[in-house]
């Protein structure tokens, strides 16, 4: 009876979709850990009593789902991480992905700032902006002041979760992978442009213009994205 049940189970999971679902479940449940190597195609084919091509198709589906990464000559490794550390995220996040994340969050943050910020908080924004404007010839100083300005915006939203999220964004912004790009992008002219955009943003916040502030932030981040990608 047990043998018959086992054979039925193998037949039920022997197609590429079934193998995909079975391996996916084990990965998500933590039976296979982050960065762990999966059994070889040959071993999986023997386990599921299928051709290696069927296993290969299932592994391709897992890779497309972002659960594994296949390294030529080394095997297939779990890329799904149930408990990623800050360092994991910083290493895996590209500068472009970070800008895209900011585009998804910051235009809404400034709408909340318009609604929630009091005069004392707006003065803090002005002080942060003044620091950035004094740093036009020093990319490192400007970058720190810019991070402070955007984090102050998050605090002015008065939303604890958004503040926490933006603190994580700033942690990634300060990661070493950015240092190589900073000096190339942050010329004095570019810093002047960013500061003008910041000034316009602060002015819209003072006027309590939520849509205007959101549009300025969107334009600011789109400009940063273009600068990041370079010409072409």
How would you characterize this protein structure?
By secondary structure, this protein is mainly alpha-helical. The protein has two domains: 2-78, Arc Repressor Mutant, subunit A, CATH 1.10.10.10; 86-229, Four Helix Bundle (Hemerythrin (Met), subunit A) (Up-down Bundle). It is 72% helix and 3% strand. It has helices spanning 2-12, 16-28, 41-48, 52-64, 86-92, 95-116, 119-133, 139-156, 160-173, 179-185, 188-206, 210-229; strands at residues 68-71, 75-78. The chain has a two-stranded antiparallel ribbon with strand order 1-2. Helix 7 (119-133) runs antiparallel to helix 8. The longest helix is centred in the middle third of the chain and has 22 residues, at 95-116. The chain starts with a helix and ends with a helix. Mean pLDDT is 85; it is low at 1-12.
Quick summary:
The chain is mainly α. The protein has helices at residues 2-12, 16-28, 41-48, 52-64, 86-92, 95-116, 119-133, 139-156, 160-173, 179-185, 188-206, 210-229; strands spanning 68-71, 75-78. A hairpin with a 3-residue loop joins strand 1 and strand 2 (75-78).
Task: Describe the secondary structure blueprint for this structure.
Layout: H1 2-12, H2 16-28, H3 41-48, H4 52-64, E1 68-71, E2 75-78, H5 86-92, H6 95-116, H7 119-133, H8 139-156, H9 160-173, H10 179-185, H11 188-206, H12 210-229
Antiparallel strand pairs: 1-2
Helix pairs in contact: 2-4, 3-4, 6-8, 6-9, 6-12, 7-8, 7-11, 8-9, 11-12
């Amino acid at each position: 009876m047990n043998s018959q049940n086992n054979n039925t189970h193998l037949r039920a999971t022997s197609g590429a979709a079934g193998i995909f679902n079975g391996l996916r479940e084990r990965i998500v449940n933590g039976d296979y850990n982050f960065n762990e190597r999966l059994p070889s195609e040959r071993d999986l084919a023997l386990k599921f009593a299928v051709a290696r091509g069927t296993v290969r198709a299932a592994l391709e589906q897992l890779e497309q789902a972002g659960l594994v990464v296949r390294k030529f000559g080394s095997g297939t490794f779990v890329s799904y991480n149930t408990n990623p550390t800050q360092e994991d995220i910083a290493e895996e996040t590209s500068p472009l992905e970070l800008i895209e994340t900011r585009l998804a969050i910051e235009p809404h943050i400034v709408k909340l700032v318009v609604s929630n910020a009091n005069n004392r908080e707006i003065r803090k924004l002005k002080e942060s902006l003044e620091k950035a404007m004094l740093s036009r010839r020093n990319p490192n100083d400007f970058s720190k002041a810019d991070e402070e300005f955007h984090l102050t915006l998050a605090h002015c939203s008065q939303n604890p979760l958004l503040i926490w999220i933006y603190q994580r964004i700033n942690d990634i912004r300060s990661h070493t992978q950015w240092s190589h790009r900073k000096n190339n992008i942050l010329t004095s002219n570019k810093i002047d442009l960013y500061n003008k955009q910041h000034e316009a943003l602060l002015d819209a916040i003072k006027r309590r213009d939520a849509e205007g502030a959101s549009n300025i932030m969107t334009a600011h981040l789109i400009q940063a994205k273009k600068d990041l990608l370079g010409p072409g």
